[in-house]
């Protein structure tokens, strides 16, 4: 499988996970079947990892923790919806945030972009409150570069977004519901306990 093959699938599905037993994923597409357990032991693991990295860095792909809390590769037509949800600061996003996560969010809001790591970052990612990108620090360790969605949108040349958060969530929910039904999957979204299987 090539990157172009994978992009064709992404254009068809709108969303791809790195790995999932049923929801459309890179591992499932490369192997031609569902993956149970760790895919790192599979003979095609290097190919899957290479393709995941290439897709992650493609200009038409936005990686965010969206479906079932996993890294989800989002095709460009859904970017406006992700932006509208990410910037909404709805109750599901803000309630229950730890003190540390609130402090980090304020810092990102003020600085527009900064490096951080750990549970606090994962907390903000899970609620789509920031855009994050994995980077290597000068010491060689992995860290996250966090940006406000507005800062990301400017660098991505997103343009004006006219969607409301409600419209954006519905758009994403419809895609997830379609894929859940088509593949017998159970993908969930962070603002819903379970996405519709209808």
Describe the structure.
There is one protein chain. With 198 residues, this protein is α+β, with helices and mostly antiparallel strands. It has one domain (3-183). It contains 9 helices and 6 strands; from the N terminus they run H-E-H-H-E-E-H-H-H-E-H-E-E-H-H. It has a 3-stranded antiparallel beta sheet with strand order 1-3-2, covered by helices on one side. A 3-stranded antiparallel beta sheet has the order 4-6-5. Strand 2 and strand 3 form a beta hairpin. Helix 6 crosses helix 7 (119-126). The protein starts with a helix and ends in a 15-residue tail after the last helix. Mean pLDDT is 88; it is low at 194-198.
* Strand line-up in the sheet with most strands: 1-3-2
List the secondary-structure elements in sequence, H or E: HEHHEEHHHEHEEHH
Question: What global shape is seen?
Answer: globular
**Radius of gyration, whole Å:** 17 Å
Sheet/helix structural class? alpha+beta
Q: In total, how many beta strands? A: 6
Largest sheet: 3 strands, antiparallel
How far is it from the N-terminal to the C-terminal residue, by CA? Answer: 31 Å
- The helix content, as a percent range, equals 40-55%
**Portion in strands:** 5-15%
Task: Please name the defining characteristics of this protein.
single chain, 198 residues, alpha+beta, three-stranded antiparallel β-sheet, 6 strands, globular, disordered C terminus
């Amino acid at each position: 499988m090539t990157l172009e093959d994978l992009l064709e699938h992404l254009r068809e599905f709108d969303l791809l996970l790195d790995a999932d037993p049923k929801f459309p994923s890179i591992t499932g597409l490369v192997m031609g079947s569902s993956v149970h357990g760790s895919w790192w032991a599979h003979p095609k693991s290097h190919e899957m990892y290479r393709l995941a990295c290439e897709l992650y860095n493609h200009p038409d792909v936005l990686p965010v923790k969206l479906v079932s809390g996993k890294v989800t590769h989002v095709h460009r037509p859904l970017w406006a919806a992700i932006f509208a949800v990410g910037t909404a600061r709805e109750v599901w996003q803000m309630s229950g945030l730890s003190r540390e996560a609130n402090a980090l969010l304020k810092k990102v809001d003020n600085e527009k972009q900064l490096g951080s790591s750990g549970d606090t970052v994962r907390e903000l990612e899970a609620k789509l409150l920031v855009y994050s990108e994995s980077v290597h620090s000068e010491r060689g360790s992995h860290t996250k570069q966090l940006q406000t969605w507005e800062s990301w949108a400017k660098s991505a040349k997103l343009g004006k977004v006219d969607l409301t958060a409600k419209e954006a969530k519905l758009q994403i929910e419809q895609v997830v519901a379609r894929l859940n039904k088509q593949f017998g999957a159970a993908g969930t979204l962070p603002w819903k306990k379970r996405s519709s299987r209808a």
